[in-house]
Structure formats: C-alpha cells, structure tokens
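Lab notebook, design round three. We kept the backbone fixed and only want residue identities now. Task for the bench partner: fill in a sequence for the structure below.
Input structure tokens:
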C-alpha cells in the first residue's frame, strides 16, 4: 500500500507478507536465524520495490561480506514478484546461538541497493557499510548517505504454526520541489520530518503483524490528526523466481561455443543450479 502526507512532504509504503514468505523460505532448509533474517529482508525489499515507478524495473537488495557467517544475502523485486536467497556457513552459525546480532552474522560487510529501470536500461546503485542493529537500520543509513533522504523503516517478523508473517512500514521525507528553494531532504532536522517520523516510529510490532488491522487502518491510526492522508491500494505479492529452461538457454547461448563445451557434462548437457528456488536444470544447446 502507498500513502502520502502532502502537508508534510512525506510518502510511505506499508506491506504485510504471509504465504509468499512460506513459499520462498521453503525452497531451502534454513536454520531459524537465517529464516528470520531473510523474512526481514524480503519485507524490506517489497517496501523498496514499490518505490519503482517503472513497471519493468527491478529493485535488488544485497548484503555481502568476505568472511562472515553469512557471506551473501540477496533479494529482488520486479513487477510484484519477490525472491530471495541466503548463503551461509551452517557450522559457524550454530556456534552463535539462537539470536545472533547483525554484526556476528556478517562482520564487516556492505549493503548494496540497486534500482534497474527496465524501460530505459538505466541503473542506479548505492553501496554503504552494513552497520546498525538490523537490516532496517542499515537501509535507513543507505538512504541517508546515498540519497540524502531521511527514511524510517520498521519491520516485524513472526513465526508460528501456520507459517511466517512479516509486516513493514517505510516513511520518507520528500524534496520541496520548488525551483530556487533549498531541498527539504537535506535538512535532517526539519520540523515536518521530526513530526511524522515520531508518529511513524510509534508503530508496534503487534500492529505491523495484526491480521485484524488492515494496512489502511494502520496508517490512519498513525496519522489521523493530519489534514490529509492519501492512500493508494497496493498489489498482491508473489514469489517470482525467473528460472526456466528457456531463460538459461538464452543466457548460455551468448557464450562462445568453446566456452559452452567446457561447461558440458558427459551427456552434452550444462547443469545450472538456481540458488533462489533450489532447482537444477539440464540445458542442451544445439
């Protein structure tokens, strides 16, 4: 769901994920801490992906490190479709206990957020140190450092007998937009931002996850004293792994014949693993 606060020069996004999380998480036998982290990352990716105005565009969130227990976490969003994957060292993870910190999982890592605009072919990427107590805090720092946009992100994840649920809220301060005036988003202590960020920051994990509280009501509860709150319904999110035989055949066809020959097994097939959905494809190219 999208919403704007015109009088405060602010915009927001709210998402709640259910079955799509279970579908993505079920592709791998992730231990509990990794499953929890990936659910958070997918909720944040859904928030950021809906910032794209280009329907053919893609948002990719990637957290990576050279020597961490988790050396790669990658999620992406395209046209309402989500996918995600985590590569980790299970033995080292088990040594950390049930509630490892972000630093203990990644160490000195970095966070990269990439916006690919499908209609124009343009790409925008920002890279910042992976710092803070959570992925949400790291993403807030990304927007502050790379975009100079004050941003608040809140995420809650719950694992229960009926599956995994995640709820997330994003709020951003927008530029003034009037020529010749200082942009609001470079004034990090602007009173408009202080006001709305305090309101948004009061959201609880219970509210983010409560199935009886729809997203529009949740936003109204936060900002009901504002003169105007514009709300736009969002879309149903689905798992969107793009792994097909045709997709991989198209990619492999771009390699030289000699390179493809080196990839082939004794049956003349090239075996391709999809990390996102944990499937293997046997590709033959004439």
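Proposed sequence:
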């Amino acid at each position: 769901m999208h919403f704007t606060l015109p009088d405060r020069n602010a915009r927001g996004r709210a998402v709640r994920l259910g079955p799509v999380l279970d579908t993505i998480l079920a592709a791998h036998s992730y231990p509990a801490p990794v499953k929890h982290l990936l659910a958070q990352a997918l909720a944040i990716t859904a928030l950021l992906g809906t910032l794209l105005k280009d329907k053919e565009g893609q948002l990719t969130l990637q957290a990576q490190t050279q020597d961490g227990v988790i050396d790669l976490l990658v999620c992406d969003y395209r046209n309402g479709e989500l996918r995600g994957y985590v590569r980790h060292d299970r033995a080292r993870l088990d040594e950390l206990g049930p509630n490892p910190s972000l630093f203990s999982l990644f160490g000195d890592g970095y966070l990269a957020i990439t916006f690919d605009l499908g209609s124009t072919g343009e790409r925008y990427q920002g890279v910042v140190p992976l710092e803070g107590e959570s992925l949400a805090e790291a993403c807030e720092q990304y927007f502050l450092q790379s975009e100079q946009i004050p941003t608040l992100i809140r995420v809650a994840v719950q694992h229960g007998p009926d599956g995994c649920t995640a709820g997330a809220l994003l709020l951003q301060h927008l530029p003034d937009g009037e020529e010749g005036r200082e942009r609001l988003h470079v004034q990090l202590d602007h009173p408009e931002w202080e006001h709305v960020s305090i309101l948004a920051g009061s959201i609880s994990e219970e509210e983010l996850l409560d199935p009886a509280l729809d997203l529009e009501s949740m936003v109204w509860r936060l900002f009901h004293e504002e003169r105007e709150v514009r709300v736009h319904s969002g879309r149903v999110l689905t798992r969107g792994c793009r792994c097909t035989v045709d997709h991989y055949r198209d990619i492999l066809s771009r390699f030289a014949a000699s390179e493809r020959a080196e990839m082939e097994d004794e049956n003349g097939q090239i075996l391709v693993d999809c990390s996102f959905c944990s499937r293997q494809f046997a590709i033959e190219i004439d």
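Keep this in mind before ordering anything: The first strand starts at residue 2 and ends at 5.
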